[in-house]
Structure formats: structure tokens, C-alpha cells
Please model this.
Amino acid sequence: MKKISEASVRDIIKKAKSKGMVVPGFNIPYLPMMKPVVQALVDTKTFGLIMVARLEWLKFQSGSMIQIRDEYEKLKNLNFTRLHLDHVPVIDEDNLVTEFEKIISEAIELGYNSVMIDGSRLSLEENIKQTKKIVALAHQANIPVEAELGAVLGHEAGPLPPYEDLFASGKGFTDPEEAKQFAQETQADWLSVAIGNIHGAISAAMREQKKVEARLDIAHLATINYLTGIPLVLHGGTGIRKEYIMQSFQQGISKINIATAIRQPYEKLMNTSVKKAQEAVYNEMIHILQNELEIAGSALKLMD
Ligand code: 13P
Model:
């Protein structure tokens, strides 16, 4: 088998799916967070993705796609890391239309290993149409594409309805038949699904709040997995009850996105001491990899 350092992230995530394992992706809203994130992956021999989303250079302090790429080039270790462009929405959390094609093309030129288009605020037809465009341009460069269907809420500025009401109504959940059609027609490589997961709040007024403990509808996930067959992605990875997370890896979740869990400890200390804030990120990373996801050592197991 190919060494993991030489494997494409597309193959690594395929492998994770076939083994019921997961590749975690960690968001970097502040550039100095990248060092302890990479260090924790290397020290625990875990394979993971370093990620930045458009809202993190606009509303936080990750700078730009170039700055993230440059920092990554300094710190990367191909035995344990790849660089992913997270959420580039077609319509963003403030209802603005973005230059998503331009941003994603730029990321590919800059050397990002995988990209995400988020057309989840569009109609199914429009989401398929825009996602297909991005798949065509990314696949030309042999770069895998993550897409989203259904609404993983939480990034919007207004208050959310009570979580239990959301879960009980299934509002925004990915429709399994639509997911099947979406996967076939777009040829996206990975699909982000809504099955009870929500994003941690990012508006300035709410970003310090403790995130609600989410649950997952595992039966719903299993149906989507059966009908699509492609690796599925769980956004809003912070604060989901562990029993649901562990079950989701057996039902097609092959990538999990985590932001709030490492951002909040950093923000608490960043104005006191960046070094202390970095230590807090490192400690939280070790806890997540070892205790919450139980995937420490995954880089050694993924490719055998
Ligand atoms: P959390 O902030 O809830 O961990 O979600 C992260 C995420 O999904 C980024 O795409």
C-alpha cells in the first residue's frame, strides 16, 4: 500500500470510510492556532486536516487564504496533515452572494489539497448547478470537492429555535432521496449532511457562548449513507454526544469538522498570552483526539 505521505486526500478519506474511521478537520480562525493543532496531530500520530473557511478571514483573524497556506507550508507534515478550504458559501450567513468560483479557483492555484462549496442556502436544482461547476474546475486539477445539502444551522446571526424543537421537527435535515440525486448528478467527492448537527455560533455577540449538546439521527444518516455511497461529512463537530459521534463513523461519516472546541480556549487566553492560548489549544486537541474521537494513532492504521 502507498505511504500516507504520498496518498491523495481523496484516497485517504475513501480509506477512512471503508474502515469505519474518521479524518478530523480543524478550523484555524487565528493563525497562531495552527502550530499547536499540527503539533498535536504529529505527537499523537493522528491524520487530520487543517482548514480555513471564508468567514474566518472575514470575521476572525486567519488573515487570508495566502497567509493560511504560507503558515501551513512552514508547519505541515505530510504523514499527518493536508490543507482543506472549508465553507465557501454561494450565499453566505448574512445572505450576501459571494465570489465563490473565484475564491475556490484561487485556493486550488495556491495549493489547497481539497475544497468545499456550500450551496446549502440554494434550491436543490441551483445547488446541483453551482456544485457541478466547482466539481468540473476542481477535478480538472485533481482536487476533491466537498458539497453540502440540507441546512447545518448556527452560523447565522439571529437566535436559533430551541434545539430540541429543531431536532424533533427534522427542520433542515438532508433529504436522503435528494442526497442520492445530488451525489449522482454533481459527482462531488464528499457530502456534508444535516442530521441533527449544528454549527457553533460565530457572531460577535454569541461566539463565546457554550454550544448546545447536539444529538444525531443515526437511522437517517444510515439511509443517506446507503443511498449515496460517498464519504459523508459531519459539520458542527463540537459538543455532540460521544455515543452519537462514535456510531456516525460506522454509518458513513468519514470527515468531522471541529472549530468551536479549539477556538474558545484560544480566545479566552489570546489577549493575556499567545503562548498560553496555544498551550490551551494543544491540550484540547490531545483530549479530542484521544478521548472524544478516540482516533489517536489513526495515521498508522489508515493506509494498511
Ligand atoms: P463547530 O464550530 O461546531 O465545531 O463546527 C465546525 C464546522 O463545522 C466548521 O465547518
Summary: The mean pLDDT is 96. The longest strand covers residues 81-89. The longest helix spans residues 274-292.
